[in-house]
Design goal:
single chain, 107 residues, mainly alpha, elongated
């Protein structure tokens, strides 16, 4: 059957919902993978090498923690002219990795 029913024109509502959610799911999955990979690598490097590299990567993490996410997003995405989801994914990865890096460094 058709769990969400039909529209007045006879279109399946479930199919249209899934089709409309493509961009949101793409952003969510790709941004999560990007943040996890980048944060794990940088946090792991800081924790493994320690000393000078730990100090540099920890300060870089602190700098990115200081950027307000909403304001940073407005500024970064206002200069992008692309109509794809990839600038949004890049922005989320750029401002989201410090949390994972801090967790990975402490492990």
């Amino acid at each position: 059957g058709h769990p969400f029913g039909f529209t007045n024109q006879g279109c399946d509502v479930y199919t249209r919902t899934v089709y409309g959610a493509r961009a949101s799911v793409t952003v969510g999955v790709c941004a999560t993978l990007g943040v996890a990979i980048l944060g794990s690598i940088l946090g792991g490097l800081a924790g493994f090498f320690g000393g000078f590299w730990d100090s540099i990567l920890s300060r870089l993490t602190d700098i990115f923690f200081a950027i307000p996410v909403v304001l940073g997003g407005l500024v970064l995405l206002s200069v992008v002219t692309s109509n794809t989801v990839w600038p949004v994914v890049g922005f989320i990865v750029l401002l989201g990795w410090p949390q994972i890096a801090r967790i990975a460094r402490g492990s």
